[in-house]
Amino acid sequence: MYINWVHQYVPPTFASLALAVNPVFIYLIFSEKVAILGNYRYLLLYFACFNLIYSTFVLLLPIAIHSYRYCFSIFTSDGHFLEASSLNLNLLIARCSLIACSYAVLLSHFVYRYLAVKTSNYTGRKFPIFMLGSLILTSLFFGYGFAICAFGNSPAGKAYLRESYFKTHNIDSMKLNIIAAVFYEVPDGLEYRSYASIGLLTIQSVTSLTLFITLGTMVDFLNQNQKVNIASRRFGRSIVSSSI
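User: That's the sequence. What structure does it adopt?
Assistant: Structure tokens below.
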């Protein structure tokens, strides 16, 4: 099968680097020198573990993207899970769903920053509840992405791509695990499912990005207010001292 060298070598290279660096990162998190991180180190551990899981999927399940007319698709391009089967297709969907999980992981970071600025108990005594909520949110995002990818996929999409795959990659698309969205030239049922799937995934992405921006802005605003309050108190003390 012919695959562009960028898609073939760049992702595994970065995944290998992630697998090499993250164990060191985990060690540094829990070393005595960075013990001042407090409970935030467990959130960093959560990020590192997610990165390790995703990097493992990248190495074991390499993927590529193919577009043709009114369709674009993601398919398994190499490895032990290349052959078409229900298990291998579910693994491909799972890998794509991990991208949705990354939104949940980042959202946990922004929420923690906001709670930390507000000196909430959920960053201290109630931190286990916060971590449990983060894990539940990640699971929900994963299930959401998995369900949408499975809902929008159909063997008709593989059949639509058959000629194009053979010309481009020199392989029969029916022998591959493919997730495809087709918006025209296929039965109406598949068209509607493709539009619905892309729409739902777009809503998830836009909502997540909106929350990132909103929480980040709120954290910056609260930090600025705290700095102003500290400066005001110091100024007041200096006035009192000088007047005495």
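Residues 65-230 form one domain.
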